């Protein structure tokens, strides 16, 4: 078998002109779950006394689990993972991928901090005011990730249903 660095041999997907590899689809699935769970958890956190701490904890657990899995699937889709440092070495603010390279690690970090705050609250019965702000930062980065993911999916002509400028807005509904 002859292969080159620039040619991808996919054994699972049927070769097409434009197509989504399974790894990219997994990223969309997991990041959607993580972002929606984060938004729900933040809503529960900011409701105050009327919020349900158990539902918030479950949502944060789902968010952190899917939020850690999603970047792994995205890394598998890059095919040349060593080039990811180019996003940080040569910033391009007009590129959606550059925004995603900033938002995804921030989202992962904030969701892990939020999870640690939930563990502290449930195990040691201590609550800090900073938790609400971590929840808000997590929600803001999840909104940014939904916009980034929607825009990335709408730019590519892989599937006609996804090739629309309305896709980032449709992800919220």
From TrEMBL:
Pfam families associated with the record: NrfD (PF03916)
Q: Which UniProt keywords apply?
A: Cell membrane, Membrane, Transmembrane, Transmembrane helix
Q: Which Gene3D superfamilies match?
A: Formate dehydrogenase/DMSO reductase domain
Describe its membrane topology: Multi-pass membrane protein
The protein's superkingdom reads Bacteria
List the GO cellular component terms. plasma membrane
Transmembrane stretches, start-end? 20-43, 55-76, 96-123, 130-150
Q: Where in the cell is it found?
A: Cell membrane
Q: What is its main location?
A: membrane
Family per record: Belongs to the NrfD family.
Cited PANTHER family: PROTEIN NRFD
The protein's name in its UniProt record: Tetrathionate reductase subunit C
Q: Which organism is it from?
A: Proteus mirabilis
Q: Which gene encodes it?
A: ttrC_1
């Amino acid at each position: 078998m002859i292969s080159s660095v620039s040619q991808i041999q996919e054994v699972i997907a049927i070769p097409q002109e434009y197509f989504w590899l399974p790894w990219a689809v997994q990223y969309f699935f997991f990041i959607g779950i993580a972002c929606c769970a984060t938004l729900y958890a933040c809503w529960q956190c900011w409701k105050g006394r009327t919020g349900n701490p158990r539902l918030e904890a479950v949502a944060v657990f789902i968010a952190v689990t899917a939020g850690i899995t999603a970047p792994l699937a995205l890394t598998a889709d890059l095919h040349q993972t060593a080039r990811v440092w180019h996003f940080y070495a040569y910033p391009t603010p007009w590129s959606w991928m550059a925004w995603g390279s900033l938002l995804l690690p921030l989202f992962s970090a904030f969701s892990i901090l939020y999870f640690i705050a939930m563990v502290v609250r449930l195990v040691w019965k201590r609550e800090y005011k900073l938790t609400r702000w971590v929840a808000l930062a997590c929600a803001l980065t999840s909104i940014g990730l939904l916009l980034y993911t929607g825009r990335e999916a709408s730019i590519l002509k892989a599937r006609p249903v996804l090739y629309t400028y309305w896709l980032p807005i449709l992800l919220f509904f």
